[in-house]
Design a protein that fits this description.
single chain, alpha+beta, 17 helices
């Protein structure tokens, strides 16, 4: 075999210079029989141009084209493959028609590939039937391969085309919703469901076509192609699903448009559509609560709280972190809370207790601030844009975005007016709490009074009582008032004091101490100056009964400034502790009648 191949190459070298001369087939046959088709082809073509009646030359020409066809890429060179197959079929057909008994007997050396033992005679030889049978098989195989190749390319192109169409349909949906899954879900419609179903159907067709292609590919025998599908999940609507796919690669990565579309359809049908109905139903429910409050004048805070606590709209927050309808519900429920407060407080507004009134106002203002904040936030939203996401809700509940916008604005205006009014009222009552009204006088319940005030508070004990000095011109009189929630006068006592020690110009040095029993029936008031006169501190001590008023008052002097007043309920004896910064202290005792009885260190 090696010798034959070497001879064929030498023959080729010898033939090449003579390419322009007449080619002898017996010399060319040696090269052809050695399967050196690439070297032999140009000479064979030249030979056939001059010799059209050599069936063996036709046979080898068919074999050359068959070999070429086997080397063609079945997908990328399909046209060339078809051409080579057609040429092979053409020359095999010429050979089949040209090879007869005479040809086989005359040129049996050319057909030694068909040399067989005759089972009857046991002799080797070439028979026409063997040659024809082989050529028939080759012709049929080539025709079948041509048909399969055509079918294969069609199925391959269909697969690629259908996938491209699927991708186009997906991209079209993405463009319509700007790649936002929130917009796709909230703005979904029956039209979108139909589009998603079309994506699924087209993708199914893609896979069916691919399966057909794979089945046909097996008929082609061994090729370099063995594509296997690898489906990629679409996790991000905005970013996935658009990359190109090389269908010639064996690891064929395709976006799984079907799974994504199927999941999206399920979400729309099972969650989005039911949520739309629930939104409208919830708005109707809130409106009914308002009707109930208005008609029956009853609080609906408990009902509002139940709606607010409902978790049925939590799925909506998965797609829209700040759903407009829920903001609207929050505003309407906040308004119901405020109006319910007014209903609850209506029968309590006659109370003279200013603290109680202030508490009522405080709770109303708290609800109003919530309403003002929510309505203000809602006012800043673009309802025309919101209508794209919540078209069904707005249309069924309000008709148009304009109506909805008007509702929000009127609610916001209402909250602003009410809040201003309630805050003014709150400030007014707060100011009233700073004074006790005693006919034409107003006694301050705060320490920092201005110079024009006729009253100088020296001691205020919570909501119990206050004591100090009242001035008519520059003359001082001690005063004591119990403090009531209404700020109307209750126990009022005026008592004399040391005029010289407590003149108004010395008010910076004037101080006061008080003491009372647990039941608030007995009170002691000590007014004093913390500036010594002739090394002594002057003071006035007054004893007051809730029922009888002033019992007595007495002027006292101390070596040290007073710091504490206590008394024994059983004896009525009063102890005044005096002390200085150096730590020295002196206790001064006064009996129940106001007489100083002893001094102890």
């Amino acid at each position: 075999m090696v010798r034959i191949l070497a001879f064929a190459i030498v023959l080729f070298i010898g033939l090449a210079p003579a390419y322009g001369q007449k080619i002898k087939y017996k010399d060319l046959f040696i090269l052809l029989n050695a399967k050196q088709f690439a070297e032999a082809e140009p000479f064979l073509k030249k030979y056939l141009e001059e010799n059209t009646d050599n069936p063996n030359a036709h046979l080898f020409m068919a074999m050359i084209y068959q070999e070429k066809a086997e080397g063609n890429d079945i997908l990328k060179e399909t046209d060339l493959l078809q051409t080579n197959l057609d040429s092979a079929i053409y020359f095999y057909d010429l050979a089949y028609k040209g090879i007869d008994e005479k040809e086989v007997r005359k040129n049996d050396e050319y057909y030694q590939a068909y040399n067989r033992r005759d089972l009857r005679t046991g002799k080797f030889g070439v028979t026409l039937s063997d040659v024809q049978f082989d050529l028939e098989k080759k012709l049929q195989a080539l025709k079948d391969r041509k048909e399969v190749a055509t079918q294969l390319l069609s199925e391959f192109n269909d697969t690629e085309s259908l996938y491209s169409k699927t991708q186009f349909l997906f991209k079209d949906i993405k463009i319509r919703f700007n790649g936002e899954m929130k917009a796709l879900l909230l703005r979904s419609s029956d039209t979108l469901l139909a589009d998603l179903a079309r994506v699924i159907a087209t993708f199914d067709s893609t896979k069916t076509s691919f399966d057909d292609y794979k089945f046909t590919l097996k008929k082609m025998g061994k090729t370099k192609y063995n594509q296997e599908l690898s489906l990629m999940d679409i996790k991000s609507f905005a970013n996935d699903g658009e990359s190109k796919t090389d269908f010639y690669e064996n690891d064929l990565k395709l976006w799984d448009y079907k799974s994504w579309s199927k999941t999206t359809i399920e979400t729309i049908k099972d969650q989005i559509f039911p949520l739309r109905d629930q939104l409208v139903a919830a708005d109707i429910e809130i409106n009914k609560l308002r009707e109930k409050l208005t008609k029956d004048s009853v609080s609906v805070k408990t009902d509002a709280a139940a709606i607010r606590a409902s978790k049925k709209f939590d799925p909506l927050k998965e797609y829209d972190p700040s759903p407009m309808p829920l903001g609207l519900f929050a505003m309407k429920l906040a308004e119901l809370d405020y109006l319910s407060e007014l209903v609850l407080h209506k029968s309590l507004k006659d109370s003279a207790n200013l603290h109680f009134q202030l508490n009522l106002l405080e709770s109303e203002i708290t609800e109003l601030k919530k309403l003002d904040s929510i309505s203000g936030s809602l006012s800043s939203r673009d309802f025309n844009e919101e209508a794209k996401d919540y078209r069904d809700f707005i249309t069924n509940a309000y008709g148009t975005p304009t109506v909805l916008r008007s509702l929000v604005k009127s609610t916001k205006d209402f909250s602003v007016r009410e809040l201003k009014e309630k805050q003014t009222e709150f400030e007014s009552i707060g100011e009233s709490l700073k004074w006790i009204v005693d006919e034409a006088d107003s006694i301050p319940l705060f320490m920092e009074v201005n110079d024009s005030s006729h009253f100088l508070p020296l001691n205020i004990v919570g909501e119990k009582f206050t004591a100090g000095l009242a001035y008519a011109d520059s003359l001082a009189t001690g005063y004591f008032y119990t403090i009531t929630p209404t700020r109307q006068k209750d126990v009022v006592v005026r008592f004399p004091v040391d005029q010289e020690s407590f003149v108004k110009r010395k008010k910076a040095s004037l101080k006061g101490l008080t003491a009372s029993d647990e039941n608030g029936q007995v009170f002691y008031v000590l007014v004093y100056s913390d500036k010594p006169q002739e090394d002594k501190y002057t003071a006035t001590l007054a004893k007051i009964y809730r029922t009888d008023g002033l019992s007595w008052s007495t002027n006292l002097t101390f070596l040290l400034p007073p710091s504490e007043v206590t008394f024994k309920v059983e004896t009525g004896e009063v102890t005044i502790k005096t002390s200085n910064a150096a730590g020295e202290s002196v206790l001064v005792a006064v009996d129940k009648n106001g007489k100083r009885i002893e001094t102890a260190k």
